[in-house]
Amino acid sequence: MATNAEVLRYLTSMDFPADKQDIIREAERAGAPPDVLKALRAMPPVDYHNTNEVVRSARTDPAPEVTPADLAARARNRKQQQVARHLRGT
């Protein structure tokens, strides 16, 4: 599966707003690999106004460096588990 960074790498010269087909054509022209093109083809057929909208719509792996073991370790870390100020008792 393609990552967000890989998708963005092939859209650096893209002019927005653009529709789905224009985005796919630009990625093909830039030499995008098949997994990036597959992620772009899975997007809804709407007009996109910037690369952030493209990344949110494309089927990508947003954070491949985070493993399930990392997530479990974060959940067990008591330092990060704090109550928000508005939920604290007065």
TrEMBL record:
It comes from Micromonospora polyrhachis. It holds the Pfam family DUF2795. This is DUF2795 domain-containing protein.
